[in-house]
Structure formats: structure tokens, C-alpha cells
Amino acid sequence: MKYPFTKSVDVTDTYFGVEVKDPYRWLEDDRSLETKTWVETQNEVTSAYLDKIPYRAQLKNRLETLWNYEKISAPFKEGHFIYFSKNDGLQNQDVIYRKQNENSQAEVFLDPNTFSKDGTVSLGAISFSKNGKFLAYTISEGGSDWRKVFVMDAVSKTIIEEALTNVKFSQISWYKDEGFYYSSYDKPEGSELSAKTDQHKIYYHKLRTPQENDVIIYGDKPEEKHRYIYAKVTEDNRFLVLTPRVSTSGNKVFIKDLSNPNAALKTIINNTETDTYLIDNAGDALFLLTNLNAPNKKVVRVNFNTPDPKHWEDVIPETNQVLTIAKSGEYFFAHYMVNAISKVKQYTYNGEFIRDIKLPGLGTSSGFGSKKDELSCYFSFSNYCTPSSIYKFDLKTGNYTPYWQPSIDFNSNHFESHQVFYTSKDGTKIPMIITHKKGINLNGKNPTILYGYGGFNISLTPAFSITNAVWLEQGGVLAVPNIRGGGEYGKTWHDAGTKLQKQNVFDDFIAAAEYLIANNYTTSKYLALRGGSNGGLLVAAVMTQRPDLAKVVLPAVGVLDMLRYHTFTAGAGWAYDYGTAEDSKAMFDYLKAYSPLHNIKKGVAYPATLITTGDHDDRVVPAHSFKFAAELQAKQTGNNPTLIRIETNAGHGAGTPVSKTIAQYADIFGFTLNNMGYTLEN
């Protein structure tokens, strides 16, 4: 491969007396013409390579065919209407519809496909006022995390005021029909896509008033500085709840009685050592989900007037499984993960057990949420082989019926999933779900994607994916291990993959690959490692530690410079998981020892690598991927290609148009199979 020229500059940082060179620092400037030219030339080389793959068009056609089925969401009531979203098949963005009752004709309410010609302006959050009279919705341009907020008269479908701008990482929570709370940062100096954003603020926007008049509720004082602050108004309009955080884990909890205009914020928790959130209230009774003294979480009740943890009473006690909670009508639905598989129980607000919900199969359920006056709710169910279906659930009887099932050109009966447990380097047992065609020949020659994440308390549970379905149809194996750093076994499992224990995550992933090879699913020649964001860090770190392990590596929007990640946008908020190079000499040494960018060595034959990122990614800035690609291209030995695919007008992933997603996966699978020496199955 002849790669584009990437200049090297003399930039050196010193950490605890140790000098670290950063020759591609100039690629961090996303506004420079030089960086733009580099992106264009890299994309030209990558496109020329991908264009030569004979079956890329065939993969793209199959992705389009499989994708082209109607998809709808569960309905929800707001005011006098029933709303739902629908995609006819290949629409770039889902469309929101509404109807007056279950039997009436639906009309288009909001069509994000009209926001831009190429589908790169997407709909973010939507939030209706308490009586459904007004709607506030956010849009993202080019995949950026910065948002604009539009306010609409929901009945007439007309925009009623100037858009709010420069809103980021925000919920929108209405107080009655009068206004709403939202979060944002001051616009940073320099590039809005890469400059650091560090002090979140809560604002209240009164309807039909200019944004410059919005009142700061919390976050403008030095002692109120937090990287993330979210605001929520309870369903009865009684309380405002704030949850300030300095990192992605751990939060404070403050509450204000909105029925008293002179009320001050009252403290429930004033440290960020645990995760605690208000689920609901019944008058003065507050119901909280917490992992305080309960690593797997529990539901507690406390009176607003005496909210200190010493007064908490258990409603749903902690168990051996991780708990998440939904509320519907006047019931709690306790969702447990049993080795990453869903189990759901129904309780009253008093903690009285009602029933176990017998789900349609082994997989992942979600939903079970509705307002207090509802008599029913909806939930979805899927697994790696089964496309997601929606069911309507009767809150009183516990009976449910199919509400919507997809009509898709994919035969789930031809495929199977099974869970195995393998042993990691330190003896820890790790679950992994392996999916493939029935009757697979375990001859070590099956093209296999090992997909992982391993961070931020995020759990990988079984869910259907159109892109994965196409991979399975080609005879591919999909293996997804539930490695440490995730949330599958609670706070303890998460913490075991953070900071000075991050190597556990990489060891767990390496052991998963070795299990697949030892059991003849595949060999290194037919193995691909794939992950995005923190998962991009995972696969890139494993690639530098074990370049012999896999044939192909696919890091997407990865965190790859572990010494500087915290200097971009909201990256400093990830310090709970990673630590930073400034924390201590020990933390710096640890980060440098696994940072993918800093561990590429000359004279090593690394796997075929296709790095993917978006030029508008302001969460994990593309400079991570740019610098990693430049370093790898400069040092790669042997014939394996090292390419970077940079999507324009695209961000971290959310809101990416369907057309761009299909093209991207045709390239990813084409690159993977081509480097494994495969031809496609018919």
C-alpha cells in the first residue's frame, strides 16, 4: 500500500519527567485546511482500495434489501393524540406520526427527512408539555452533540418561537405547559467540535420568551461546577430533581418543591460516590433507584421532608442480579440481567410482588413504561436471531398480546445462539453469546467477528441487528463476550475494568478470542475484532498487545490517545473509567503502557485495519483516529492494509442516515471478508 504523506512535527509533552513525542499533533486542528486535505487524500486511498473488492456492491444490495421493511415504535399518548414513529424501510430518518384514537387514520406529525436533503440533520430528543399542548424537540446537524431546540404548538404543528441554540448533553423536562428545563455549556473558544466543555449549567426556558432571558437554575458558580447536570420535573409537576455529575459514573441528587416559589434546593445526596436517581413520587413519598450499599441496585422510599439516606426504606431489595426499573400505571417493573438475559418482575409501589413476566423467549426486553393513568403499556423483545417485536401488556391481568411484528426477509429459524462461559487470564469466568447458522462446521475456517465494549457500566445484551444478520447470512459467526468494565454484574463488575484495572478488559477480550480458536469456531486467519468508541479503544489496545491474534481489526470512533483524551470536548468526564495522565505517575505509566497510539512499534506486522470515524464527532474527536492511522501507516510492516474511512457530515453514530450506515457496513464487511480471502455465499 502507498499511503498519503503525513508530515511529522516536533511536539513533545512531559509527564512526571517523562518526555512523550506527539508528531501528529497538527491533526487535532479540525478547522485547518491542512487537516481537511489530509482527510480527503486518506479517503481517496481508502475508496480506491474498497472499490476493488468485487462483492462490495453485492453486500450493499443485500443490506438494502434486508433493511427495507417497515419499522414502528410503541405508541404513546400525549394530550388528545396517540403518537408513534415509523420508517417505511430505507428512509434516512424515522418519521413521527399521530392519530386521534387507535382506529383512526394516522397523519405525519414531524418528518426529519425534510430537515436536510442528504439526511444528515437528524431528530434528537422530543418532549411534550404536561398536557400535550406543546412539543420541544432537538436536532443534530452533521452528527454533532450540539443541538438546536425547536418549540412547536403540537395541535397546529407550527413553530412558535426562535430556536434555542448551543444546547448540549441535555434532557428537556417541562413544567406544566409553561416552560422547560434544559442543560448546556458556554460555547467554547476555538473549535466547537473539539474544544473542551467542562461546566454544565441548568436553564429554565419560559415559553415564548427569547433564549437570552432564560434563567440559570444551577451551575454558574464555581462550587456548582460539574461536567454533566440533568434536570427532571416529576409527572405531577411537584418536584424538580437535579443530578450533577463530575464523570460518567456517580451523581449528587438535589430536589426542589416547585409548589413553593421560595423553596431552595434540598440535598438528598451530596457526593458522587454512588448512582442514585428518582424514579417517581407519590405526594411526599420519593422512590429512588440506587446502588448505595447495593452494588446491584435496589429501590428505596423516603419522605421529601427527611430525604437523607439514613431514612431510606427498601421497597425492592438488592438481589444477585443487576436491577433497572421502569414505571407504568402505578406499578414498578423490575428488569434483571441474569447472565445478560432479561428477566422481568412486576411490583406495586409498596413493594408487593405481583408476578413474573413470562417473556417470549431468551433475549432482551425493554419498555414497560407509561403514565400513571394508563391501564396498559408496551414492551419490546429481541435477541441476536430474532428481530424486535412489540407487545401490549395489560397492567392488571399480566396478559400480553403481539402489537407489531416485523415482516422481514430473514429466516430466524436458520440461525442459533448459545451462551458459553470461558476463563480469563486471572481465572474470572466470562459469559459470551455465540451466534451462527445452524449446522455450522467447526473446522476453524468460519469468518468470525468478535465484538466487545467493556466500559462505562454499559451492558451488551442480545439484540437483533440488520447488519449482523447480513454477516450471519454470509456464514459468519458473531461472538459477543460480556467482559469486565460493563454493567452485566453490577458496580463491582464495572469497577473491575476501570483505571488501574483496565487491563482486565483487554485480557477478557483476548481470552474470548482464544476460546473461539481453541474450540474451532475460527482461527486467527479468519478472526476480526470490532468495537466502537470505548470498544474502539478495546480492539486497538488488543491489536497492539497481540498483533498475532486476529486477521482484521475494526476500531470505530475509538478513544485511542489515552494521554490527551481528557483535553477534548467532554472527555474529562470519562476519568472515572480511565483516570488521566495528570492524576499520578502511576496512572500516567499505566495509561501510556496500553494507549493504542503510543504502543505501535516499528517492524511489527499488524492486522488489516479499517479505522472508521466521522468528521463531526465531537464526543470522541476524530483526531484520535487520525493520529492512530498516521502512526500505524508509518510503522506497519508487511502487506496488511491500514486504512481510515472518514465519514463527512457524520458524528459519533446517533442520527446517522440509513444510506450512510448501509454504505459503511458494506465497506466494513467487504474489507473484512476480502482480507480473510473469502468469496460470498449466494
From TrEMBL:
One of its GO terms (biological process) is proteolysis. One of its GO terms (molecular function) is serine-type endopeptidase activity. Its EC number is 3.4.21.26. Residues 5-403 form the Peptidase S9A N-terminal domain. Transmembrane segments: none annotated. Keywords: Hydrolase, Periplasm, Protease, Serine protease, Signal. It is found in: Periplasm. Gene3D superfamilies: alpha/beta hydrolase, Prolyl oligopeptidase, N-terminal domain. This is prolyl oligopeptidase. It comes from Algibacter amylolyticus.
